[in-house]
């Protein structure tokens, strides 16, 4: 359970099918989606923060 993705965890998008691949952020919430659980990730940008949704399976801990 030490590598579990949960709310407040720093993550990197590593899934090959994700448009946000390579982005680093913090999980805001996890919710059910069409293909399983999805994570809402908040990523700090230069001018403002971004928020995007990716499947939990496309994430790895940082």
Question: What do these coordinates show?
Answer:
There is one protein chain. The chain contains no helices and 5 strands. The protein has a 5-stranded antiparallel sheet, with no helix packed on it. Strand 3 and strand 4 (50-55) form a beta hairpin. Helices cover 0% and strands 50% of the residues. The chain has 62 residues and is mostly beta strands. The chain has strands spanning 10-13, 24-33, 36-43, 50-55, 59-61. The two termini are 15 Å apart.
Q: Name the overall outline.
A: globular
Helix/strand structural class: mainly beta
What count of helical segments does DSSP give? 0
Number of strands: 5
| Mean of pLDDT | 92
Taken as a percent bin, the fraction of beta residues is: over 45%
Please give the order of strands in the largest beta sheet. 4-3-2-1-5
Helical fraction: under 10%
Low-confidence stretches: none
Distance between the termini: 15 Å
Largest sheet: 5 strands, antiparallel
Gyration radius, rounded = 11 Å
Would you list the SSEs in sequence order as H and E? EEEEE
What labels describe this entry?
single chain, 62 residues, five-stranded antiparallel β-sheet, mainly beta
Structure in a nutshell:
The chain is mostly beta strands and 62 residues long.
Please specify the SSE layout and strand pairing.
Blueprint lengths: L9 E4 L10 E10 L2 E8 L6 E6 L3 E3 L1
Antiparallel strand pairs: 1-2, 1-5, 2-3, 3-4
